[in-house]
User: Fold these one by one.
Assistant:
Number 1:
Amino acid sequence: MRSPGSSSCPSDTPRVAAGEFYDYTARYGAMRDGDDKTLGERFDEILQEERVHMSEHTPGDGQHPGLIEEREYRELLESLGLTPLLSVPLIALSNGQTRRARIARAILRRPDIILLDEPLTGLDIESRDRLVHLLQSFKTSTTYSPSILSSYRLQEVVDHLHGSLKDVAPAFVSHIAFLEKDTFWAGPRDEFFGDFVKRHFKEGNTEVWANGFGTGSAGTPKGWKTREDAPLVVDLQGVNVVYQGKRKILDQISWQIRQGDRWHLKGQNGSGKTTLLSLITGDHPQSYVQKHLLLPPTFSPTSPQGFTPTLAHRKRIPTPVLKSSIGVLSPELFDAFPRREPGMSVWDAVQTGFGGVFVPAGEGVGMASVDDIFEDGKRDEVREWRVKRCWEVLEALGPNSWADKQVSQTPGEGASEATEAFAARPITSLTQGEQRVVLLMRALVGRAPLVILDEVWSGMEEGMINAVKAYFKSGRAFGDHQAVVVVTHWEEEVPWTREEGLQSFRLEKGYGKTE
Ligand SMILES: Nc1ncnc2c1ncn2[C@@H]1O[C@H](COP(=O)(O)OP(=O)(O)OP(=O)(O)O)[C@@H](O)[C@H]1O
């Protein structure tokens, strides 16, 4: 019998765990039988399950908290912005929409305790406000008032953007438990901000602020006089995506991405960011039918010089070539990456980034592909560069950079013991945050002409976030020939400023515009 006591909303891998969304490319293709269950139908099923569960118990026996009333159900959907999505198949929901649906599902069952793991991650600003408002309303509700246990990253609780200690914790939070390495503190919110935060961050723990974005040197050195001189990496003109002949998601989008560019792709949940990026990565079937969708066709095997910036239409680029031209980390990729592949180590996972593949290809640096692709004279050089590059990213983002205060070695001088041990670990033995860092290494390792970083910080611990920020700021993470697109709903997570050359592309109601 299920426990009526609590319900939770895990921060990630929800689609896999729930069996509701298992293959991230499936959502772009034709729906298969069983894929077309709508959000409304799923909620109806849950309510029916609750009715059955209630009928098996007498009221007051403590085994069920009572069915949600019709009016409250409607209000719940409304307050999470789900009403217009009831007729949408589960598989077609965007990330933020899925997260909101999962939170509603948890609340529908009216548990006594709700566990929320980083509930604001992946939500746009409006949805974050709506959720906080909903959780706040439970405090004064006479019909349903659950206890809420919710985890947040420090930046969602303390004003991180400005490096200040201002309390920005969501309004409904009354008590805070703080966990960091060997420090544990728990108590009322006022005491946390009144005393603990100030004391804790004064006592030598200031690096959490010092490494924030906005410090250090610019990360966008460029070898071109003006941006327009830089070669194109992606060229989209008048791109459209329509579903079922009527749902227009992208309407005449034109976007040019050039070498050295740093882009922030913006837009509310469901505005089409993932769809647009899936056209660029070639995962979306409609990428083949676009009139003008030019993508980077060339391997970038050894160095920036190895890249020839000649664009080609999606139809003309073999998928493996396109995959090796674009480094990606996204929630979809995180869910789909086959980390349970028997024996897959960190090293194996990182090196799949050279080909943008999921399965390690052979021995060593997985360079079966090297033999296939490169001529005799070039193979050794390619192998050598790839091995060196794997160690570089492992050193830069491995445990030396976030686990404790050890000073990491200069990249290229060989890997430290901690890094070697980390490289050998099975990826399944890592925490979720560690797995994210490894998949970020995978996206960066090939020095691909285009790197797409979609919500890369979610699930990472504070120390990891700071290590990644520091790496991006160091100028070593990206070469001049690389273009980077960052997707996040948090401005403070974007690693560059406008002064450093950052540009923004916003999607709204199907249209796209540069800001
Ligand atoms: N196969 C499909 N059929 C119908 N609609 C779809 C399909 N796939 C996606 N959509 C819709 O396309 C819209 C855009 O989704 P997309 O995932 O691109 O949004 P997003 O901007 O990435 O959102 P988020 O910020 O939540 O990640 C959503 O409203 C989604 O429901």
Number 2:
Amino acid sequence: MADSVLSLQNLDVGFPGMTVVHDLNLDVADGAFVSLLGPSGSGKSTVLRTIAGLLPALGGRVALEGRDITTFPPERRNVGIVFQNYALFPTMTAFENIAFALRVAKKPKAEIEKRVHEVAAMARITDQLDKKPASMSGGQQQRVAIARALVTGSRVLLFDEPLSNLDAKVRASMRQEIKRLQTELGFTAIFVTHDQEDALTMSDVIVVLNHGKIEQIGDGRTLYRKPATPFICEFIGVSNELAPQLAARLLGSEIKGRSFVRLEDVMLSATAGIPARVKHVEFLGAYSRIDLDVEGHALSAMLIGDPLPDPGSTVPLAVRPGAAHIFAEAIP
Ligand SMILES: Nc1ncnc2c1ncn2[C@@H]1O[C@H](COP(=O)(O)OP(=O)(O)OP(=O)(O)O)[C@@H](O)[C@H]1O
């Protein structure tokens, strides 16, 4: 593991009289892609804005490359920010957008020219420098926003939900583009999102926040396969929560606590399955969602390919062995 470039130590973030996230500890390796993932209001943006210095920390420390920057103003922190919808200045050309922070810092003209051309070449937008944002594609605008964030020499880039207003297809290609630039240019990324696909597709590490607390930190596969809490199990992927009687029937023994089964782990042609009535079949192209009634309990399954069961028919249902996620906490 590379050395930690950014370190949050016992960090409390929030607003006067209101702590949003308490006692956050996180070490980010140099060159890592880290997502802060969580539902609306979980505190992701507040953490990001505190790292950027746009909000003062309420307690604890922020360290960048070993240096305590907790009380530094934003312009002295050497972190770049890519905002929601990129927030490019519409009346300025790409060149002027990228040069903005250097101009504010009153750098000499020749240095600004040189530096803007360097980062534009890295982001492969040299041919776009004279254009204004409105005449660039979304992908080109994103590259300008990343070049603007890198121009002052920042090696850590903070992304504040940059993809939030894009449709699914464009979003997928923008993700690939961000990931490609991050890998090629080697910067460290802290990416705020409420979208699990953003986090799963791009991140080395995902930090899941809920109600101001870290629920779990891990790579996408670990979060998906070994969720630490019921919240993670329901937030990442799609799961059925099994009622206690159904859990006992399907899992073969009485379960103390809460149990979940992912839709793809519900099998509908098991040799020794429990009869389940097919209520509804939803064809979604690559897969189909089947809603079932099992001894009075609702359960859903996901099937890839054909044949699909007919609504009203009865199918033998079982849970893939070992696939249930069981949490020994009280049922709410
Ligand atoms: N300026 C503010 N003053 C007081 N409270 C705020 C302020 N901005 C946000 N909050 C509160 O802080 C909490 C966390 O908000 P935050 O924006 O960090 O959440 P988030 O996880 O980024 O959500 P979203 O995805 O909706 O932006 C919320 O309860 C919110 O109401």
